[in-house]
Glucose-6-phosphate 1-dehydrogenase
Amino acid sequence: KENPTSLIVIFGATGDLAKRKLYPSIYRLYKNGSISKNFAVVGVARRPLTNEEFRSNVSKSVSSVANGDGNVEEFSSHFYYHPFDVTSSESYQQLKGLLGDLDSDYETNGNRIFYLAMAPEFFGTIATNLKSEGLTETDGWKRLVIEKPFGHNLPSAKDLNAEIRQAFDESEIYRIDHYLGKEMVQNIEVIRFANALFEPLWNNRYISNIQITSSEVLGVEDRGRYYENSGALRDMVQNHMLQMVALLAMEPPIKLNPEEIRSEKVKVLRAMRKIEQDDVEDYFVRGQYGAGFVDGDQVQGYREGNSVDPNSNTETYVAGKLLIDNFRWAGVPIYIRTGKRMSEKSTKIIVQFKDIPMNLYYNRGEKVDPNLLVINIQPEEGITLHLNAKKSGKDVTTTPIKLDYTNNCIDGINTPEAYERLIYDAMRGDMTNFTHWDEVALSWSFIDEISKAWENTRAFDFPNYESGSMGPKQADGLLEKDGFHWWPL
Ligand code: BG6
């Protein structure tokens, strides 16, 4: 199959995401020959910059991945800058002219990706103008890649969706959830469906509970303005955490195509038990970090951060218990937790299997640990199986053992960045690892009840966890009620 060729128009070209993730990822695709030489990138943003200035910024942002390779200038020469006012039709007309010229210069067959990586309040306006000013009329294909947040709740997500759907068909909309680009998140499907060992046990007869943790060491840093209106629930749970839940809990799809996979994921989200506002306390715990120590350094609490209300009610930590009401999962709690300024950066899924029917070693005073399947998403990538075996020696006593597989030890290379895969997929037209509107809508309708409950009641105990800790104590209570505990990471 030929490598894809396209123009990529990046709105928000001077922003952090473009610099940190998008340019380096496009560079890697270029370097390893995954995209054809027939491509050009048009950077769009408000700031006035010349092509030369823009190219030198791009070169700088790829320098660390280029590792001294001599092709950076050649790469940056594919980049063009268009200073732009989101609301002026003249700006769109000029951009249209530029795209027309580049289409023929680079022989990109009229293929266009419009990548929205700027402040979400402009997503709708841009999409509308792209259509009304004729930029979406092209001989090739057109695709809209759209960053989070996709709305702020269900009503605003619906509005945004209606706006973008006027200009793009659902099959042309690539909603980014960068967790779906992660190697080990994509591996969930393979571990489940390519092994005879797990799938027969993957249900409420053999699994007692599942724990998904995504902890971060960094605080909110300079994103206070965004975060104050978001909080951990919208920032991490609505998207990344629920996507992981859907992949873990879905039925085997009939085929591995985007439609079949998405439709199985949607079913999981539909079966997820809605939590009424009055019951939120029984199922969810919120937290906000106070001051503390990270790597031996004293750090400030969330409320002391820039652009943060000194009395902020915003949560920087969420733990919750989810229930999926279907035949496979009835009665199996899925616990999730995510937070900022925790003791380590780690994303892990732990599947805890039920106890053996009878412990033959019990009379000897031996407790046998349950089997765990740990899927390490990051920073380590791999899987670990916790089993029990005989302790070597004369006596037959048990000891816990671990079977470990670490991706990077075997392959010896760094797996590609999530964004590298996602940009590549968008260019190839593979929508599997992007979120369908139905998934977005269902996740918001689940999340909205919880955020309403939290907006309506002040968290008087905030801040309730120290920076550098594993979150508020109440999160332990959530599992203890059910006779479980969080497994250490
Ligand atoms: C983003 C959130 O979607 O995901 C950030 O907006 C968060 O707040 C980030 O830090 C975490 O991503 P990763 O890949 O570092 O786990």
The CA atoms of residues 183 and 415 lie 7 Å apart. Residues 437-456 form the longest helix (20 residues). The first strand starts at residue 6 and ends at 11. The pocket of 6-O-phosphono-beta-D-glucopyranose is lined by residues 148, 216, 235, 347 (CB under 6 Å).
